[in-house]
Amino acid sequence: MSLPRVVSASEWRTACKSLQSAEERAATLLNEAAEQRRQLPATRVEKQYVLQGPAGKVSLADMFEGRRQLIVQHFMFDPAWDEGCPVCSYQADSVGGGLAHLHARNTTYAAVSRAPIGKIEQFRQRMGWSFPWYSAEGSDFNYDFHATNDENVAPIEWNFMTKQELVDAGLPYFARPGEQGLVSVFYRDGDDVLLSYSGGFHVIDLLCTTDQLLNLTPLGQQREDVELRHHDKY
Q1: Could you tell me the sign of the dihedral formed by the alpha carbons of 35, 158, 46, 121, in that order?
Q2: CA nearest neighbour of 64 among 110, 111, 117
Q3: pTM for this one?
Q4: What ranges do the domains of the chain cover?
């Protein structure tokens, strides 16, 4: 780990002021992207998905819990696994007390995985998370939203890129068969459920607030120095 240079107070102040312009440019770009995201058109979800919750079967419309908006974390949890993906767990840890703020703004946050609901509930309780989490076991949900790659079901696609495009872009991991992390956003208009946004990669990075806090520090995210684990394994 490289430590910061030690300089005089005046030189430190000058460096901080210089950084502000870069931070302002970055904030402007993020705000512009957020505005473009809000202006995206939406497409109607025609298929009637049936998922499993702790209390039984639920539809996609049920997952809104009466609110207008629904953010779905496509949480990587294969049916054969005993616990969810550590990276997806890292993202889920950032939700925490934010649920109350989302609910006050007519928005529900939920996770969906292919693991059976029994495994999901056991892991959710172990992690101490309170957001709803549903099983897509036996459903087309994960395949249709490209959160599970299986060429026996459909051509591989992730983040709107084909298998070859992912390989050519240096992203072969996302071209492999199996589970992938994504975020999808839905909007409810009466009885209609609309898909307004779907994305992965950079957007998922933005949702990991721990990374944003660490980015304020001299040592940064320390990805090469600290192995990412479930929070109860440190």
Answers
A1: negative
A2: 110
A3: 0.93
A4: 9-36, 44-211
